[in-house]
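pinging the channel bc i need a second pair of eyes. not urgent but kinda urgent?? the chain im working w is below, pasted from the shared doc
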Amino acid sequence: MSGTGAKRDVMKEAIGFFFWTGLLKPAPGTWGSLAALPFVWLLHVIGGPWLLAAAIVGAYFLGLWAIRGLLTTSDSEDPSEIVIDEVVGMWIAMLPVSFGAWAAGAGILALYPGWIAAFLAFRLFDIWKPWLVGRADRRGDALGVMLDDVWAGVFAGVVTLVLAALSHAFLMG
């Protein structure tokens, strides 16, 4: 982040850049989305979808705090290295997979088609920015940075649910 030469806040960078995965090139948003996946597995194994849901809420508010601070030292309204928003969106997209695994009594890794669908749908909505995703992105503030990925995650979660329903209806039964 170029910015005004203000003092670095390592805590806000660790959160906003999601342990600095946002500094990976090319496509830091994709790297941030990928980095979110092992945490989905861990949270699900420890506490199921309920812990994942709680982590989403916590990461949202912690991320918003970090983004607000990081934007004060940036020349950009949405610096590419900030990827905590992708993490939150990816976790939202994965929530139906976590609930599906929990309801089926299966390990979450067994639902790998859901992981793939959620990841691809999330990246599609995050890049394409249709409707509410684009509206949030155009806000030009910290809330917009976070909300566009929240909406992308919601849309990706819905797509994942629809694909799972279709799969169960037509391929398995």
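so The two ends are 52 Å apart (CA to CA). and Residues 28-71 form the longest helix (44 residues). — does that match what u expected or am i reading it wrong
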